[in-house]
Amino acid sequence: MSENTFPDDFLWGGAIAANQAEGAYLSGGKGLTTVDLIPYGEKRLATKLGLFETVNLEPKEYYPSHQGIDFYNRYQDDIALLAEMGFKVFRTSISWSRIYPKGDELVANEAGIEFYRNLFLECKKYNIEPLVTLCHFDVPMHLVNEYGSWRSREMIAFFERYATTCFNEFDGLVKYWLTFNEINILLHSPFSGAGLLFKNGENKEQIKYQAAHYELVASASVTRIAHEINPDNQVGCMLAGGDFYPYSCKPEDVLTALQKDRENLFFIDVQSRGYYPSYAKKVFAEKQVVLDITEQDRQILTNTVDFISFSYYASRCASADMNSHNTSEANIVKSIKNPHLPSSDWGWVIDPVGLRITMNTLYDRYQKPLFLVENGLGAKDSLDENGEIQDDYRINYLKQHIKAMKDAISDGIPLMGYTPWGCIDLVAASTGEMSKRYGFIYVDRDDMGNGSLKRIRKKSFHWYKRVIATNGECLD
């Protein structure tokens, strides 16, 4: 094997999330989750940011998660399509409220367990390894209403019970686990990230960092439990990745970029090293955060992850002069537009070299294997006169990022696998749109939930099949 080729056991695949794909939001005894109350349209962003003191289902609103792409009822056909592409791994999530509808019950919901067991058995039928996220932007709404979600220390025990049930019930079917999806996003999108709502006058930073601490303790605790139940289990953390570049070589810009990177890497520092970083004390002092942290918490945090998983869509740009007028609203993580880079239809910069930079940053910092579990191009796809989708723009985007992965491997970085985001078109988490498509497989559904749900292979489907078959050697 040459120094810039993928290892023979490289895990090629794709990724979805339960709340964006399954639909069937109350089927099989499932309870309401946070994402089930995030509407499409004008109120979406404010809801995600936790700007309302309470959230309820409103008859006039459209909630995309309620139907998703009906993966709940169509997973057998969908997994067969993924197998046709040659997938080695399939990343999905378990909806907590399918297993524990309220989140605080003592007895699990058998119908939910049966659904996921059948899903994972379907994957195994095709020799596809499931990569399973325990909490991917959905918290049972009962836990939000009764406990304030991750404001409460009680959430740790609820999450431990849920995770233990999953580890036991799916033992032998799932060995790759992620605890919390893009854990750093709770700082930027508190309700969608962690089920947090705020009252007027509260110190939001105190609430967010306290919630983050409880999530970090819960993550470390279930990492230990996973290893105890089966030593072959591998548990990873998950970061919304993408380095911040200084907008200029002005020292103040460089310092701001460093601080912005630390803000995102803060959580992974804890999950990978087992303790809070040295700069945490100053961060907490500046934000007037006083953590409820015990010696037992500190001991639990020493249960570190086996690998670092991350998403990469774009790099970011930071300046000491960042403000609401010069930062992009395109992404929930604010950034100044980089004049050297093109952008997607939704304003996300396209920066393959930034992936190589991010991978080097993460490996230099943590010295643990990496797993790129989200990457892709959100774009508008249309059927041509032959009923086909010629998505060369997506192929080009993915090709350049796979080349960047090769370059990072040549830098000496161990990369476990690659699961491009939304391998089947699904509801976009950012906007709630179906028209922001990522997949190799087109789903006939529009932004308001209309359509046949028919699946159609795009040009990228056949391209990615060749990529997998040649272990990343054939990219044309």
UniProtKB/TrEMBL annotation:
It comes from the Bacteria. The active site is at E374 (nucleophile). Keywords: Glycosidase, Hydrolase. The keyword Transcription does not apply. Pfam families: Glyco_hydro_1. InterPro entries: GH, GH_1_N_CS, Glyco_hydro_1, Glyco_hydro_1_AS. Coiled coil: none annotated. The keyword Signal does not apply. NCBIfam families: PRK09593.1 (NF007158), PRK09852.1 (NF007356). Belongs to the glycosyl hydrolase 1 family. This is 6-phospho-beta-glucosidase. It comes from Psychromonas marina. The lineage of its organism: Bacteria, Pseudomonadati, Pseudomonadota, Gammaproteobacteria, Alteromonadales.
